Amino acid sequence: MTATGPLDGVRVLDLTSNVMGPFASLHLADMGADVWKIESGGGDTIRRVGPARNVGMSSNFLHLNRNKRSIVLDLKSDGGVSVLRRMITDADVLLYSMRPRAMRSLGFSYDEVREINPRIVYVGALGFGQSGPYADRPAYDDLIQAASGMAALQNRKVGHPEFVATPIADRVVGISTAMAVSAALYHRNVTGEGQEVQVPMFETFTQLILGDHLWGHSFDPPIGDWGYARTMNPDRRPYETQDGRYVAVSIYIDKHWRSFFQVAGRPELADHRNFLDVDARAENMPELLHLLSEIFATRPADEWLADLAAADIPAIETNTPAAALDDPHLRRTGFSFVEEHPSEGRINSLGIPQTWSACSPAVRHPAPRLGEHSVQILRKVGVSETEIATLLASGAVTDEFGQCDVVSAQ
């Protein structure tokens, strides 16, 4: 891999699986960290989620695990444990997503890891904060959406509790975890001090939800209901146009509303007492949003988009995920591109959203096959060829072929 990015030189041992942890380590890998993905013999569960050309290389896995290297370790074997201890010696970060008691049972609690490497940043992407009664419960995205209040918010929009159509809790908490790792690395670089960091999924995602939706319950005692009414209104959605396409529009300030009513051919509404200013619109938001759905149905999408742009009113056509991939803006900025994967062929890849004037991150390497880098990593941590052969023969370590000829791997 070509070294590049602000985290160049940082080595991350990634013991996470599924979505939340791998999304965190994806950000670290994209920023230049050398992420060693430590997998069990069956591989990360996400390897089998989504369509695939080859077993274990699903669409979801490909998007979550680029810029990483894969090693397969049996951490229930003495050989696998020994290898991980050697890897910890020179690592900067150990990232895990299993429950802490599982890490303790493997012999890799923070206290045990700190004995090997006191400078390590030891980060758990956990389900729940460890001081509460849910500490040892399993956590998945749907459960956290339900417990945080997200599903109940959808109740007021669609008439029943409902999950958002993406694992949003996994993704948001993954980003928060990557931020925590980066901040802990900065602290270590300033002080020389490693530390343990825990990022609980329930608390982290609930912070996201309640910041908007505590509403009147922000006060004790409450001075109103919970829920940000505008965002829960069922008419707050992309609007269907005359030709069956959908347009999303964001009209906030008085100037925008006056301009919109002109564009819509309804200038008299600008002075209507229900829509005259921000307070009147807030009080009559259900009526206003329903009116928008009626207005947009009167003209085709292209006409709306052109007239709204001319009036400087924020609007955009609604994409499907497939259409977003071909959005002209995303193609021009290089965010979406076709990549040739060494085993999976041509795949549509997603770029790194930020631009940097220095130490620019880069897509350096596609998602790895299971155990693709096992032997390479063993050599990197100083394991001899004889030891490598013994580890492979015992099954403590597995490469992408199950067991390889060590000499041919050189």
Indicate the topology.
Layout: E1 11-15, H1 20-30, E2 34-39, H2 59-64, E3 68-73, H3 78-89, E4 93-96, H4 100-106, H5 110-116, E5 121-126, H6 141-148, H7 150-158, H8 168-191, E6 195-200, H9 201-213, H10 229-232, E7 239-240, E8 246-249, H11 254-263, H12 278-283, H13 285-296, H14 301-310, E9 315-317, H15 321-325, H16 328-333, E10 336-341, E11 345-350, H17 374-380, H18 385-394, E12 397-398
Parallel strand pairs: 1-2, 1-4, 2-3, 4-5, 5-6
Antiparallel strand pairs: 3-12, 7-8, 8-9, 10-11
Helix pairs in contact: 1-8, 6-9, 8-9
C-alpha Rg (nearest Å): 26 Å
Weakly predicted, low-confidence segments: 403-410
Order of helices and strands: EHEHEHEHHEHHHEHHEEHHHHEHHEEHHE
Count of β-strands: 12
What's the short version?
By secondary structure, the chain is an alpha/beta fold. It has helices at residues 20-30, 59-64, 78-89, 100-106, 110-116, 141-148, 150-158, 168-191, 201-213, 229-232, 254-263, 278-283, 285-296, 301-310, 321-325, 328-333, 374-380, 385-394, and strands at 11-15, 34-39, 68-73, 93-96, 121-126, 195-200, 239-240, 246-249, 315-317, 336-341, 345-350, 397-398.
